[in-house]
Amino acid sequence: MSIFAHRKSYSETVEGRRRLLSRLKVLLIVFLAFELVAGLFLTASAVSSRAMEPSLAPGDRILSSPLVYGPLTILGKLPAPIKPERGDLILADPPYAARPGFFPALAESLVRFVTFQQLSLPKPGYSPALMGPFVERVVALPGDEIAMEDFVFKVRPEGQAHFLTEFELSGMRYDITKPKLPEGWTDSLPLSGSMAPRTLGKDEYFLAGDNRGASSDSRLWGPVGLDRFRGRIFLRYWPFKGFGRP
To answer: Strand ranges (DSSP E) for the chain?
Structure first.
């Protein structure tokens, strides 16, 4: 056995570089295809809180479509082919959440891609529980007047004379969880179960969680515009016994 290392010829070196570049090219194409699908058509997410109980529970895996409400791209948010409706389940950013620039977002996507969504870049001071995105339900649309009594929203659609409950106006069937408030908890305190009537503006949507005592939503941070919508949730794929439309 020779004690000398084999020195590659020039042609072997060129061929090795060619194979490496070819593999990197394939990886780049796969990454761009993944980003296109996840950014425009299909995004998988995990529910991490009790805010949507009983509709969704912690650990549920869901699929949403960014394309429905207009995906967010490096060129800005694209036009929405479909307008949100009352009762829709969505992913949304709260109005105070800052969005990363193009290059940080690209680096984050690349890290998550090569680690099969297991790792993310460190973000000092960032907390998903505070910054979102959150799973929410659309309760009221622009122009609606909305109030709350005993944790149930009452909505008067623009141009109509009477209030109806959120369940009567929703195109989706769902239930809510009402908390048991501590003794002495008055209507003036947050999450009290009551809310004075307010009229939504031209591009204001009122969002709420189904678990009315464990949800960060428009009762705390106000209505949001369509630019804060990440996508419409259309499928729960795990656990398998809950497979279907949530």
So the answer is: 43-46, 61-65, 72-73, 76-77, 89-92, 134-140, 145-149, 152-156, 164-165, 195-199, 206-208, 229-238
CATH of the domain at 29: 2.10.109.10
Rg (CA), the chain: 24
Structural domain of residue 144, as residue ranges? 13-97+132-242
Residue 159 is classified by DSSP as T
pTM here is: 0.81
> Per residue in 50-84, pLDDT tens?
999 999 999 999 999 999 998 877 667 788 889 99
Q: Is residue 55 part of a domain?
A: yes
Going by C-alpha positions, the residue among 90, 66, 50, 124 that lies closest to residue 205 is 90
Residue 1 scores a pLDDT above 50: no
- Given a cut of 70, whether residue 129 has pLDDT beyond it is no
102-114 and 10-36 helices, crossing angle to 10°: 110
Residue 140 CA neighbour count, 13 Å, CB half: 31
